[in-house]
Design brief:
heterodimer, A: 331 residues, alpha/beta, six-stranded parallel beta sheet, two-stranded antiparallel sheet, globular, B: 326 residues, Rossmann fold, seven-stranded mixed beta sheet, five-stranded mixed beta sheet, 21% strand
C-alpha cells in the first residue's frame, strides 16, 4: 500500500520532507522507550501511547507558526514532540524528575511547554476544549493572528463540553481548528457504539462549521489539508472541524491488552503504518534512497540521550511540594 | 467622605473600575449585556463599554468558565458571571479540574488569573435547585480562592482586591444582599483577601459567619446584649484562604465559639473551623464549639418551610442558650 500524494505544495522542501519523517520516527521511538521504562518501573501511573497516530500530530503541527497554540488531551506525547518539546524533558517528566517539562508534577498526561505555546495535555476527556476556545478567544480579542490547534479524541465527542465549545467557537468565529483523532475506540468501546453520527466529521455541519475528513495515516494528506485550513482560519474565516481517521497500535493505556478488538483488525491497520507508508512514498518519489536505517539510528541516539538524561536527573525536592499552587508561592 | 450605596451598586462600581483600568478585562455571562445581569449588577455597562467588553454568552457555563481559564492563560482578565452558584455545578470540571490546577500542573508556566462572580443563598423561595450554598465545597480546593462579602463596603473592597488576584477566584455574592445598603468610603480602599473582620467586639462569646449570616449574627448579638451576653461577631470575608488567627485571638478572649452558616452543616465550613480551633486553641475553650447551619434537607419552596431551613435569629439564640449554658 502506498500514498498517492503528489508533492504537497511547492513550499515543501527536501529537508521539510525529512523533518516530517524524523518527527514521526522520534515519536514512535519515544513511545517505545516509554513502554520499555513503564515495564521496568521507571514510569508509573497511566501511560497512553500515541503509536500509530503520529501522522496527525506531525502533519498538522508542522503547519503552525511560532505564535500559534497547541492544546490537547492526555495522549499528548506526540503533540508535544511534534511541537518541538525536547524529548529529554518530556522523558524526564515521565520519570517524575525535577528536570521534566513540569518538574515531575504533571506526568504523562499533563505535559506543558509555554516556550512552545504548548498549552498542555489535559486529562479530563473534553476538558481541553473550552480552554482551547479561551486561547482562541484571546487571539481574536487582541487580534494577534494566532491560531489554536485543539486536539480531541473520538471519546470527547460525547461530552457536553464538546457541544458547548463547538457552539461558542462557531458563534464567535474564533480562530481554532478542532482536530478529532478518531482512533475507532473510546477505551474499549467502538466509536459506532458510542457516537450516533456515522460520519463524524459532519458533526461540524450542526454548527455551520466547515468540516472534513482526512486519512490520519497519511502525513502528507494531513499536512496538505491543515495548511489550507489554517490559512483560512488565520484569515478570519472562523473555526474548522477536521476528523482524522487513525488507529492506535497499542492499547488505550499500558494497562490495556486490547482484548476487545481482534488481532486481524490490528494487523490490517498495521499495513497502513504511517511511517512505512510515508517512507515508501519518499522512495517512490525520489526523495530518499536507503536512509531509513540511518534516521532510526539518529533518532535512537536522541532517545538514548533522553533516557540517560531522565535517569540521571534528580527527583524534585520534598520542599517543592507546595510550590505553584498560587502566585504567592510560585517559582 | 462616606457614601451610602447598595451592595449591587458597590459591585457595579467595582466592575466598572476594572473595565476602565484594563482594556484586557471583560465581563462575560448569561444576560450580562442588554438584560443588565440577572440581578442587575451589570445594568448600563453594555451601553458604556460596548459588546467587546460586556459579552452575553449562551447558556454554556462549562465553556465560559473554560474560556476564562484559556483566555487568562494568555493575558486577558475575564470576569465570568455565573448566574447562580447552583449553575456553577455544571462547570465544576472546568473550575476544579482545570482552572484550579493549571499553575501547579504546568509548574508555573501558565496560570488562570480570572474571576468568577456568582450568587449563593436561599430565602427567595426559589426551591431546591436554586437556593443552595456551595461555596464551602469550592473552599476545599487548593488552587482556588473564595471570598463572600457581607456588605456594600466589603463587596467593593474585596472586589478591588479580587480583580488583582493572580489565580482563579470565586467571588460569591448573596441573593438577598443586593438591595442592602451601607457606607463605602469615597476614597479608594481595598480589603485584603484572606483576612477576617471583627465586625462587633465582645467578651462572652464569638460568633463566626460570612455573607448573609453576618448581618443576622449582628442582630443576634444585639438581642443577647439585652440579656447580658456580650457577643463578638467575626465576618470571615474569605473562605479560602481563611483567617484562623483572628478567630483564635477572639476565642482566647471569649472562650466560647459558635459558627453560623447558611450551608448544610455536614462536611461544611463550620466543621473545618471547629476542627481547626479545637486543634489549635483547645485550652482556650470553656465548652464545645457550636454550629448552626442550614437544615439537612433540599430547600422547599413554600415560605413556612423555607424559613425553617435557613438559620434564623431565634434559632441561633435558642441554640446558644441550649448548648452553651449561657
Amino acid at each position: 500500500m502506498a500514498l498517492k500524494n503528489k508533492a504537497v505544495s511547492n513550499k515543501t522542501s527536501n529537508s521539510e520532507y525529512f523533518e516530517l519523517l524524523e518527527k514521526m520516527i522520534l515519536i514512535r521511538l519515544f513511545e517505545d522507550r516509554c513502554s520499555e521504562h513503564y515495564s521496568r518501573g521507571n514510569i508509573k501511573g497511566f501511560l497512553h501511547l500515541y503509536t500509530g497516530e503520529e501522522a496527525i500530530a506531525v502533519g498538522s503541527i508542522s503547519c503552525l507558526e511560532e505564535q500559534d497554540y497547541v492544546i490537547t488531551h492526555y495522549r499528548d506525547h506526540g503533540h508535544a514532540l511534534a511541537r518541538g518539546v525536547e524529548p529529554q524533558y518530556a522523558m524526564a517528566e515521565l520519570f517524575g524528575k525535577s528536570t521534566g517539562t513540569t518538574g515531575g508534577i504533571g506526568g504523562s498526561m499533563h505535559i506543558f511547554d509555554s516556550t512552545k505555546n504548548f498549552a498542555g495535555g489535559h486529562a479530563i476527556v473534553g476538558g481541553q476544549l473550552p480552554i482551547g476556545v479561551g486561547l482562541a478567544y484571546a487571539a481574536k480579542y487582541r487580534n494577534t493572528g494566532a491560531v489554536t490547534l485543539c486536539f480531541l479524541g473520538d471519546g470527547a465527542l460525547n461530552e457536553g463540553e464538546f457541544h458547548e465549545s463547538m457552539n461558542l467557537a462557531a458563534l464567535w468565529d474564533l480562530p481554532i481548528v478542532f482536530i478529532c483523532e478518531n482512533n475507532l475506540y473510546g477505551m474499549g468501546v467502538p466509536v459506532e457504539e458510542a457516537v450516533a453520527k456515522k460520519d463524524i466529521f459532519e458533526i461540524g455541519h450542526a454548527y455551520d462549521m466547515p468540516c472534513s475528513r482526512v486519512d490520519g495515516m497519511n502525513v502528507l494528506e494531513v499536512k496538505k489539508i491543515t495548511e489550507k485550513i489554517i490559512k483560512d482560519v488565520r484569515n478570519g474565516k472562523g473555526p474548522y472541524f477536521l476528523e482524522a481517521q487513525t488507529y492506535r497500535f497499542r492499547g488505550h493505556s499500558m494497562a490495556d491488552p486490547s482484548m476487545y478488538r481482534g488481532s486481524s483488525e490490528e494487523e490490517l491497520w498495521k499495513l497502513r503504518d504511517p511511517i512505512n507508508l510515508y517512507w515508501s512514498w519518499l522512495k517512490e518519489n525520489g526523495y530518499a534512497k536507503n536512509e531509513l536505517d540511518g534516521i532510526y539510528e539518529k533518532m535512537n541516539t536522541v532517545m538514548d540521550q533522553a533516557v540517560e538524561f531522565a535517569t540521571e536527573s534528580e527527583f524534585p525536592a520534598i520542599d517543592d511540594l507546595y510550590n505553584n499552587i498560587y502566585f504567592e508561592n510560585a517559582g | 467622605m462616606p457614601n451610602v450605596i447598595t451592595y449591587r451598586e458597590a459591585l457595579t462600581k467595582g466592575i466598572r473600575e476594572a473595565l476602565i483600568d484594563n482594556d484586557d478585562c471583560f465581563l462575560m455571562g448569561e444576560d450580562v449585556g442588554a438584560y443588565g445581569g440577572a440581578y442587575a449588577v451589570s445594568k448600563g455597562l453594555l451601553e458604556e463599554f460596548g459588546p467587546k467588553r460586556i459579552v452575553d454568552s449562551p447558556l454554556s457555563e462549562s465553556a465560559i468558565v473554560g474560556l476564562g481559564t484559556g483566555s487568562s492563560m494568555v493575558g486577558l482578565k475575564p470576569i465570568i458571571e455565573i448566574m447562580t452558584i447552583n449553575f456553577l455545578l455544571v462547570a465544576l470540571d472546568q473550575l476544579v479540574n482545570h482552572a484550579a490546577k493549571i499553575r501547579y500542573m504546568s509548574a508555573n508556566q501558565y496560570s488562570a488569573p480570572f474571576m468568577i462572580r456568582t450568587v449563593t443563598g436561599g430565602g427567595a423561595q426559589l426551591g431546591a435547585t436554586h437556593s443552595q450554598c456551595f461555596e464551602p465545597w469550592l473552599a476545599s480546593v487548593p488552587g482556588l480562592k473564595v471570598v463572600a462579602p457581607s456588605s456594600p463596603y466589603d463587596a467593593l473592597g474585596l472586589f478591588r482586591s479580587a480583580i488583582k488576584e493572580n489565580d482563579p477566584i470565586v467571588f460569591v455574592e448573596h441573593i438577598l444582599l443586593y438591595g442592602s445598603k451601607g457606607i463605602v468610603d469615597e476614597d479608594y480602599y481595598e480589603i485584603p483577601i484572606g483576612k477576617a473582620n471583627v465586625v462587633r467586639s465582645g467578651d462572652n462569646l464569638t460568633l463566626v459567619a460570612y455573607s448573609k449570616m453576618v448581618p443576622l449574627c449582628l442582630e443576634v448579638a444585639n438581642s443577647l446584649e439585652d440579656q447580658g451576653i456580650d457577643v463578638e461577631v467575626i465576618d470571615l470575608r474569605s473562605l479560602r484562604p481563611w483567617d484562623k488567627e483572628t478567630i483564635i485571638n477572639s476565642v482566647n478572649k471569649t472562650n466560647r465559639l459558635v459558627i453560623v452558616e447558611e450551608a448544610w452543616r455536614s462536611g461544611g465550613f463550620g466543621a473545618e473551623i471547629a476542627s481547626t480551633i479545637q486543634e489549635e486553641a483547645f485550652d482556650s475553650l470553656d465548652g464545645p464549639i457550636g454550629r448552626v447551619g442550614g437544615l439537612e434537607v433540599p430547600m422547599p419552596y413554600t415560605s413556612v418551610l423555607e424559613s425553617q431551613v435557613i438559620p434564623s435569629k431565634d434559632r441561633i439564640i435558642t441554640y446558644i442558650h441550649q448548648n452553651l449554658n449561657t
